Predict the 3D structure of the following.
Amino acid sequence: MSTVKANTIEPASGGTVTITGAALTTPALGTPASGTLTNCTGLPASTGLAGSILAGNVTTASINSLTPSGGTLAITGAQSLTGNLSFANGQGIDFSATPGTGTSELLNDYEEGTWTPQYTNTTPPTTPYTMTITSATYTKIGRLVTIVANISTSNVNPSGASGTLRISGLPFTSAAHGVVNIGLSANWNTNFPSTGYVESGATTIALQYRATANGATAALNETDLTSGASAGQNVLIFSATYITG
């Protein structure tokens, strides 16, 4: 017999099928253009995936979810991602592979948004000052917060107010004093804000002015605000940078 064709060859129970003659040749399976790899083990690193390592010679991969069992997913080589890279709460990008002298090398937060600045005093006014907020944004990278704002008032009644003039409403509580930079102050009553600082352990900025060119700074108070119902008063364009807890 020179040719045998069969879909199934099943030996009797406990028996053996022996084929002699020409050697069997394994057909070439080719390389699939796409597909799904499911529940496979034992792949060597040279094929692209091994354990928890995504090897550098993987040129194209489409992965919906890759979860190493109880370990760390290490990525070697240059990889391209489409979509967002998300982390569990408290996790982030660990830079400890290039150690420094800091207490933490984990970048675990980034956020952008808006905030609501409000003029106030140590003792607030009976009626809150009416604010016009042209813009007020923040960016948070790790523990570092940067705020930028352009504000003014449209109605100020200082009745009941006393003490240091402040801006309240910072988006995060500060862990230490922060620096305030004032780009423009206009249409104030007496003393104009020239500087200020983020107060430690608070969500407020204390506004300061300088009475003489080389003199010390002093706190503004409610009398420095232009009072009355008039738009575009007590204009302030400023930024500040501070550290959160």
Observations:
- The chain has no helices and 15 strands.
- The radius of gyration is 34 Å.
- The first strand starts at residue 49 and ends at 50.
